[in-house]
Structures are given as structure tokens and as C-alpha cells.
Records
---
Amino acid sequence: MNESVQIEIRDLTKIYKLNKKQMQESHTKNPKKTAVDHLTLTARAGEIYGLLGPNGAGKTTTLRCIATIIKPTSGEIFVNGNEVQKHSEAVRKSIGFLTSDIKLDPQFSVDYLFDFFGELRGIAPAQIKRRKEELFTYFGISDFAHKKIKELSTGMKQKAAIAVSLVHDPEVVIFDEPTNGLDIITARGVTDYLRKLKEEGKLVIVSTHIMSEAEKLCDRIGIIIDGKKRAEGTLQELLDETRTQDLEDAFFQYFKSVKGEA
Ligand SMILES: Nc1ncnc2c1ncn2[C@@H]1O[C@H](COP(=O)(O)OP(=O)(O)OP(=O)(O)O)[C@@H](O)[C@H]1O
């Protein structure tokens, strides 16, 4: 494997088994849902790779498989050469993962949780302190660090979750819709931080359905629809391929080619 390659996904498929309630809710008699369907992609150090797709496309499922939260049905994922199922501990050490379904305990303060997760990850106290100063200052957390999570606004909670996910200074940062629900000032703070991580040589993978964000932020974009990767490239490559002027138009071209006219 190329030394600079940090994430390699080979032929990833994830099939969920649906219970009766989920089948009813999805109006289906099929007890299996293929969320990710033979997905292959490679992302490298020093880039921001964006997974772009509509609701239910399989973005979160893909990211959760990389982050060792769920097991792939088939296929392989390597993070820095470590296969995620065989070397899950090493993979978890090198990854910072943020997703809306990981919630910080509402009873505790940001300050406490940062220390708690730092210790859990085996980080030395002096390093936890240093990381805390750096991240709390950057995200303006110091003013509310002593407050309980349940007392915080959506934006404050998201900043806290981001800081906690980065306590161990990971090489690979995987953020699932990191700016969801944030005002533009807070969202900009987050995307600027992702750019800073990239400049430090880290690999950042984000999922989003915000076209303008993907357009400005991502070095390469993978378009995923119904669990399959339908296109991949730089913004310019996607625009050239679809002969469009912006990502939204390009996205609709790909969408129409899969689903027919909307
Ligand atoms: N735990 C689960 N059990 C059963 N089905 C699931 C589960 N998680 C996700 N799915 C289904 O798998 C498909 C892909 O979902 P996923 O959350 O990966 O999509 P997504 O692209 O992240 O969507 P969104 O943009 O809405 O977050 C959807 O049809 C979803 O309903």
C-alpha cells in the first residue's frame, strides 16, 4: 500500500437486518436493507474527502464501518494499513470520530468529559491539559467549559463534541455532518478547523448534503446514492464530467442518471 494512503475501502457492503417495526416503517416486506453496496474508495493524508449524498444514501453507515462502530457485512477497510476488524484498537487510536448519534452525557461538564475521554484513551495528563487549552481556546469553549452538557445550546454541544473527539490528536478525522444545525459563524469555525487539520497533513473525511460546503471545503468528493459510489473527483472534475457550473447541478445530473427524472 502507498505510504501516504490512510484509508482504503475495498468493496464494502453493509446489509442491516430489519425488525418488524423497521419493516413497517420502511413499507417493505424485505427484512434486509442494503445500506452500502460494494463501495470502494481511497482517501489520503493531507486531503479533505467529502462523502456527498441524499438522505439514506449510506454515508453514516460507511463512516461507522470505518470507525469500527459497526461491522461490515463484507469487504475490507484499512486505516493506515490496519484492517478495521482485525486491528480495531489501533484503528480507534488513529481516528477521531464525530457523529450525531454519539451523545455526550448531559449530566457532566465539557471540562470533565474532556478529561474523562482523554484518560480513557490513555493520554498523559499533561497532554490532555495542553490539548484542552488549544481546543477550548480555538472553539471558544472555555467560557462554558464548567457548565453541564444539558445546559448548552446546540452549537455549544457540537463544539464540545468536536473537542472531545479530537482529544488524542488523531491522524484521521471522520466527521459525519459536522456543521448540521450550526449557525454560519459556528459552522465556519468548524470548517476552518478542518482546513487547519488538513494543512497539518491529516486526513479529514466529512459527510454532508450541503453542496456549498462540499464545494468550498473538499479536495475530492465522492457522490453516493443508494449505497453505491456514483462519481468521484475534484469539484472541477465533477463539473467537467457533467458539463455543469456548480455542484448542485452536477449532483442532480448524477441523481437523475440513477433515479430517472425527479
Ligand atoms: N441500524 C439500522 N438498522 C436498519 N437500517 C438502517 C440502520 N441504520 C441505517 N439504516 C438504513 O440504511 C440506509 C442508509 O442509512 P445511512 O444513515 O447510512 O444514510 P445517510 O446517507 O447517512 O443518510 P442521512 O443523510 O439521512 O444521514 C437508510 O435506508 C437507513 O434507513
Note: The radius of gyration is 19 Å.
---
Amino acid sequence: MTERLRDLDESALLARIFPVYAATARDPREVPVGPGDDAAVVGAPGGTVVATTDGMVRGRDWRDDWSSGHDVGVKVAAQNVADVAAMGARPTALLVSLVAGPAVAVEWAVDLARGIAQVAGEAGASVVGGDLSSAPEGVLVVTVTALGDLGGRAPVLRSGARPGDVVAVCGSLGRSGGGLALYLAGERPVDPGADAAARTAEAASLMAAHRAPRPPWEAGPVAADAGATALVDVSDGLVTDLGRVARASGVAIELDGAVLRARYADGPLSDCLGPDEALRQVLAGGEEHSLVGCFPAGTDVAGIPGEPWHAIGVVEPVGAAGPVVRVDGEVPDVRGWDHFAPS
Ligand SMILES: Nc1ncnc2c1ncn2[C@@H]1O[C@H](COP(=O)(O)OP(=O)(O)OP(=O)(O)O)[C@@H](O)[C@H]1O
Ligand SMILES: Cc1ncc(C[n+]2csc(CCOP(=O)(O)O)c2C)c(N)n1
Ligand SMILES: [Mg+2]
């Protein structure tokens, strides 16, 4: 019989979760006090703390028939780590709040912890604590808070883009949104055996990217060191998130449609979604958590070490139309994600 949260008490649940997070424990000089006390104590070698939080809600941010607890753990941790990276920092510690109805399976909660621990381990952060709260039947909310360290760098803000800067992407575009579109169209991932059709394998890979993204968070500090003037992760869609950079910086941003089609939309994404929907996902698909940066004119973005960066556009002076994002001179007719006005 499935063991449910209502079958044990808080300390028994924590006794199942703590060992999972113990695997992420860092050197005591980095995390002098981990989980178990009233609060954790985390080092800040660079002298400041980068702090961000982002949560996921069952039914709004994932569906149980699509995603496992592990998938949700990977995604909620990854989106927080990407926000730390988008400041030019590396993550040091994560805190996890779990608000759950009594019928949630204990194994789901432990699997969630495993997913979070996986990302924490890969990103070099410790899970240092969190919170448990019960909720009415059916409610399930997971919120992660991430702390990060700039290592003495200046934070890379959304407001630093300047006319002439090169706009470049590190990581994929449109894949998570493409996977979501396939799920919403009723497709289910098929385990791609050796003889599976290429489209079957690609569709499964897009759906996996939607469930459990692996954004290139290591590239955040690297971009800062390469002189990035502005940096953001793609959470709500490329055009929406670059629109935030444009507004904060008081600039316009011009993207190259041919480059976006050739590098990100053509090929597997188009094969799965068709060319128009593929380009729409590249421009507006959310939850990719790839990094988009602006770099001073003349920066050889292809020469930035580590995960590759690809130029997709340029920053221009703001014009009569205001701080807009254009593709080939036109403001594209696409809408990114908005929690209170979902597209
Ligand atoms: N409820 C809130 N109270 C205070 N500040 C908030 C609240 N919600 C968001 N913010 C702040 O507003 C800014 C924008 O938040 P937002 O969640 O859009 O950031 P983001 O980087 O786009 O994250 P996401 O990856 O969730 O899209 C952030 O600085 C955030 O800390
Ligand atoms: C069931 C279901 N329906 C829709 C979506 C799509 N979705 C949810 S949040 C978000 C943007 C990022 O949010 P945030 O800004 O909070 O990080 C997107 C694109 C989903 N994942 N699951
Ligand atoms: Mg962000």
C-alpha cells in the first residue's frame, strides 16, 4: 500500500529527506551549519549574498501525469540556480519549502528531494534547510530559495545593456516550450528504442527538456568574467525576458530571424512542431532557463570558454517605439508566459 504523508509525522518525514540532502553537504568552511537547527549558516566568500526564490504549483507548473517528483525537483532547483547564474554568480545553498496535502505519497516527497539534490550536487550547492507545511487535499507547492556567491565580481544586471552590444545565447531555445506543446497536444513520450523513428526520439527529448531542464548555469560567472553588460535567464520566453533587459537598460534589441531559425528552430524542433510553431517556441517558449547576455561591441562571443555562446542580435539605441525587442525590424506577434494572463 502506498505510504502517504498522513501516515507519518514531520520528524519521520525529515528523517527520510535529510539523508538525501546530506549527499550535497559542502565543506564546513562553506556551510558551517546545515539542516536541523533553526536556520543554516552559509559562507559568503565574496562578501555579498545573491538571493532568489521560485516555486512550482501542481496543476499550474507541472502535471502529475507528465512529471515525477524527481522531475519537479530537478526543475525547481534548476530554475533557481539559473537565476543565480543570471546575476553572474555561482550557487552556494538551496532551501526547500514543501506545502503538501495529506494524500501525497512519501515516496514522491523523497523523489523530489533526490531531484533537488541532483541539481544541487551538479551545481556545487548544499541543500541547507527548508520548511514543511500541510495543505488542503490536492494542494502541492514546492518553493526553492537559492543563495549564491559572486566571488568578488560585480553583479550582472538587466540594466547594463548599451547600444552596440552583441546579444548572445548560451544553451537551447524553444525546447521546453516545444515539449510542453507536445504534452498539451496529447502526445506522450515514447521510450526511443534503437529503431525508433527520429521524430519519436526527438519528441521524447523535447518532453524531457520540459520536465527536467539542464540549463548551462556554469556559464553565468563565465559570462560575467567575459564582460557581460546584462544577463538574464529565459524563464518566460526570449522576447519577454529580453524585453525586461531592454526596458531596464533603456535600449532596443534587434534579433536576427535567420540566425534564430537556422540555429534553434530548423531541424528537430521544426520536425516535431512544424516551422512556424518551432520559431514561435524559440521566441516565446518559457522555462528554458538558458542564459541570454549582452556583451560589449567587438566581443568574440564564440571565444568565451566553456559552454558555447552564439550571437543572435545587437543592442540599438531606443527609438520612437520605446525599449522594444524586434526580429528583423518588426516587433514579433508572440506572447511569453505570464502567470496571471496565461497565453
Ligand atoms: N511577491 C514578491 N514580493 C517581492 N518581490 C517579488 C515578488 N515576486 C517577484 N519579486 C521580484 O520581482 C523581480 C522579478 O521577478 P520574476 O519572478 O519575474 O523574476 P525572474 O528572474 O523573471 O524569475 P522567473 O525565473 O520566476 O521568471 C525579482 O527581483 C523578484 O525578486
Ligand atoms: C501544467 C503546466 N502548464 C503550463 C506550464 C507552462 N509554464 C508554467 S510557469 C512558466 C514560466 C516560468 O514560470 P516562473 O516565472 O514562475 O519561473 C511556464 C511556461 C507548465 N509548466 N505546466
Ligand atoms: Mg530569471
Note: The chain has two domains: 5-149, 158-327.
